[in-house]
Amino acid sequence: MTTQETIQLFDKYVIANYGRLPRVIVKGEGNYLFDADGNKILDMFPGWAVSGIGHCHPRVVEAIRKQAGELLHIDNTFYNEKQGILASMLSERGFGGKCFFCNSGAEANEAAMKLARKYTAEGKYKFITTEGSFHGRTYATVTATAQPKYHEGFLPMLPGFEYVPFNDVEALQRAFSDEVAAVMVEPIQGEGGINVATPEFMHTIRELCDAHGAAMILDEVQTGMGRTGKWFGYQHFDVEPDIISMAKALGGGMAIGGIMAKPEVAKALVPGTHASTFGGNPIACAAGIAVIEAIEQDNLLQNAVQMGEYAIEKIEALKQKHEIIDHVRSKGLMIGIQLTGPGAAIVDKCLEKGLRINCTQQTVLRFMPSMTVTRDQLDTALEILDTVLTEGSEE
Ligand code: PMP
To answer: Is residue 48 left, alpha or beta, with left meaning phi > 0 and alpha meaning psi from -120 to 50?
Structure first.
């Protein structure tokens, strides 16, 4: 099928709720995508921050293939080995918690919030989240998402949510009460523009949750699985949450989400309280296991740190050259370049030259390459950005 034929199918049969780039992607390999017209694209924002270890990692593909030949799906009426193994691997790399699996980030946050309600005392029903956050598009998670543009057309949102500015300790203290069931935050806001939490903010959340018997939920959907240089974002802070949510990079490209909760918190979910038909299915879990193995075998946490530092050095050099670059915010390979003006046209021009990056909050360019990214690939990516910025300033 030609690109045009595929687009025609979409026009006629697919709900147009995404602004899509006019490319049909037919293949992914490592840090590259290939479109139906034979173009090769260097992908610095793989799968919307999904592919933490690159597209179609051979280990993941093999694990899926093998599992597909044995058992594609089994519901949670039974046990399945892969779900148990993945849970144990996450627990060992996290805080020794217990896991529940589902299929996406939003679903993971729903589970986290429902668990917080079950775990905390009766009468606690409020959730505090932070301005600029992103937690998903289901009704509760989009209510938790404290950005007005996502609420447009859906008001009134669900009751019980309060929003405080990110990293504002005093606002958090003022918002707290004994009615709060949980605080939910991203250790580093992704859609919000790569905003890194301050240690003070994280510690204050922990202290206030302890003082008021509330649960601390960290949304690790973007920060989880190594991209920041540690397995989970919270590990950059000397703080332990009660619940984390995970998705995106967890499945190496397969649809999977999950939560990990401290064992005493996890106890609140008993049969009948929460469920997901496909949650923890053997295929997605086999992929998740392969992701963790690949990260460890290939020392990818270390690579994320080193390549993150390398990228920042190069971006700082670009900043000297291009006035439009204001500053960079980052942790490992979660990189946001704050511009002084809009970035959408820059993203489009980069794509024309074979580079995929992303722009969020209108003025933040996002680089979130996979942890397998190489120096050469970063060089190429930043050379393209350099060229585009130079051309832009000459227009
Ligand atoms: N939480 C965060 C931090 C996210 O970035 C996203 C997706 N961008 C979600 C939750 C929702 O994940 P999903 O699209 O898989 O529901």
So the answer is: left
Q: Active site includes 134?
A: yes
Q: Which of 51, 195, 221, 227, when mutated, tests ligand 1's pocket best, judged by the most ligand atoms within 8 Å of its CB? A: 221
Q: Whose CA is nearest to atom 12 of ligand 1?
A: 105
DSSP string, 142-207: HHHSB-GGGTTTS-S--TTEEEE-TT-HHHHHHH--TTEEEEEE-SEETTTTSEEPPHHHHHHHHH
Q: How far is Cα 156 from Cα 248, in angstroms, rounded to an integer?
A: 29
Catalytic annotation on 248?
Answer: yes
Active-site annotation holds for 219: yes
> Does 222 carry a binding-site annotation?
yes
Residue range 252-263, pLDDT digits in tens: 999 999 999 999
Domains defined for the chain, CATH in brackets = 3-57+299-394 (3.90.1150.10), 71-298 (3.40.640.10)
Q: Is the ipTM of this complex over 0.90?
A: yes
Q: What is the pTM of this model?
A: 0.98
